[in-house]
Amino acid sequence: MQERSFHIITFGCQMNVHDSQWLGRALTARGFAPAPLEEAQVVLVNTCSVREKPELKVMSTLGRIRQATGNSPRVLVGVTGCVAQQLGDALFRQRQVRLVAGSDGISGAPAAIERLLADPALRLSLLDFTAHYEEREAGSPLPRAATGHVNIMQGCDNFCAYCIVPFTRGRQKSRATAAVLDDCRALLAAGTRDITLLGQNVNAFGRDASGDGTAFHELLRRVDALPGLARLHYVTPHPKDMDAEDVAAFGELEHLCPRLHLPLQAGSDAVLKRMGRKYDAARFLDLVARLRAARPDVALSTDLIVGFPGESEDDFQATLDMMRECDFMASFSFCYSDRPGTRASRFLDKIPPEVQQDRLVRLQALQDELGTRWLAARVGQEAEILLEGRSPRDAAPDGSGESWQGRDIYGALVHVNLPPGDHLGRTVCVRIAHAHRHSLVGSLPGNAE
């Protein structure tokens, strides 16, 4: 075991990934070093409770940690994030677990780890929700990367019937605009060129007690104006909160990319009402039409829940119809499963698992068709690619170059052969030569693929 070493295991959304990256930098700044699981003194499991059976996944992971570390009492295990918030001190039944830090408590995890290492008999739980967004300690210098993420808020006030987020991440708390802009500037100074703003409901930024009066569209404009920025994205909006200014930004802001992840969840008005989504299919389609009027080439992806309680076959067909009408280029789709404490967990008209699975297969087959068609339509077009790293794809057979990968303004992954060298963060103009199932292949002008 390496003294003052750590290993982080992450489950879930981009916000969890962002939290884990910050944890790693905060520990590094305190003199810790990353290490393989088998050699780490501190092992952190950053958890997500949104997907099916998250508690079982966490317990399985803790078992794997016990096996890898020989169940050594000298190894400090911490569980952070949404499942930590949900299960709380019950996690201390696991011998090695000495830190439980919920969604707000994660900001205190680095200091707590120092205390726990100094006192082997101590256990700490950080489970209280804070009234305002707690800014986090500075970590080690940001790594060089073409893309970066900035958290603008925590929690959610919507209480959709199926969603556990308000219970595990708490009520909505916006960050101060100045702090968001400072984080963006730090990323740009480190060489980042593409920034994604993160939040459970980004369009509601500033509408809570922690807000400083800056609306989301105003924040977008201020970030868009920062020197050095090439591309701007955000996730995740709520359709009910996208106002006219948010829509207009797609046609007005220089760096806001024409790609939006817009969660639909279901296409049936009856299901949407039971979900508590506060919009119907007509309102969603109107939003899509206004987005395409503002930016005709906008590419849309979505989230979809299959087999929500009470969903009929007609309801499901309405979802498929909406997918076709919106022409989603990609989607994340899942069978409904109960989350503790949510309204939907008490609904009695559950859909049998075999029916859920059959519908999911049909929905994903349609999405494959829509996604394949969207990618195929890109062939022959020119695209500007922001290079993010070397590609696992084979380079030129004559050894004259290297295969790199990056994304276009629509978020599509593109592979391209380039001369040897460090191309991280560069933009290159290519012509799309081929479309694969989930990616594209580009060639430099004058080159044949």
Automatic annotation (TrEMBL):
Its main location: cytoplasm. Its EC number is 2.8.4.3. It catalyses: N(6)-dimethylallyladenosine(37) in tRNA + (sulfur carrier)-SH + AH2 + 2 S-adenosyl-L-methionine = 2-methylsulfanyl-N(6)-dimethylallyladenosine(37) in tRNA + (sulfur carrier)-H + 5'-deoxyadenosine + L-methionine + A + S-adenosyl-L-homocysteine + 2 H(+). The keyword NAD does not apply. It is an enzyme of class 2 (transferase). [4Fe-4S] cluster 1 binds at C13, C48, C82. Transmembrane segments: none annotated. It is found in: Cytoplasm. [4Fe-4S] cluster 2 binds at C156, C160, C163. GO terms for cellular component: cytosol. Its cofactor is [4Fe-4S] cluster. Residues 142-373 form the Radical SAM core domain. PROSITE patterns: MTTASE_N, MTTASE_RADICAL, RADICAL_SAM. NCBIfam families: miaB-methiolase, MiaB/RimO family radical SAM methylthiotransferase. This is tRNA-2-methylthio-N(6)-dimethylallyladenosine synthase. The gene is miaB.
